[in-house]
Design brief:
Length: 124
Amino acid sequence: SIKLLSIIAVLLSCMGLFGMAEFTTRKQKKEIGIRKVNGATELNMVRNLSLGFLKWIVPGIFAGIPLGWYFMQKWLSGFAYKTTLDWWIFLVAALVSTGVALLTVSWQTCKAARRNPVEALRYE
């Protein structure tokens, strides 16, 4: 049941990121169009939009690692058989969560970067 709840939690967070990416790309539609007209490549556009999301993901990771370490130490100290909490566990969790977040966001950013800039600027 914990695996199922974990999968549901990851899917809900991906849906939230997907919605935020959709909202951001729609809000910046005109800016994306102007940048493309001025010669920005699709890679530059995807990088700029993804970095906007990394501004929120990285501080969350840096805040979550010490909290996770503290609460896991407290929880694990109550067991009869002691185990250590290695640093690489947190590194892998941070890399996986960043990767999942960037994969979720990259779908919308790639779609926004491939749009025709004329459509974005036509009604302005």
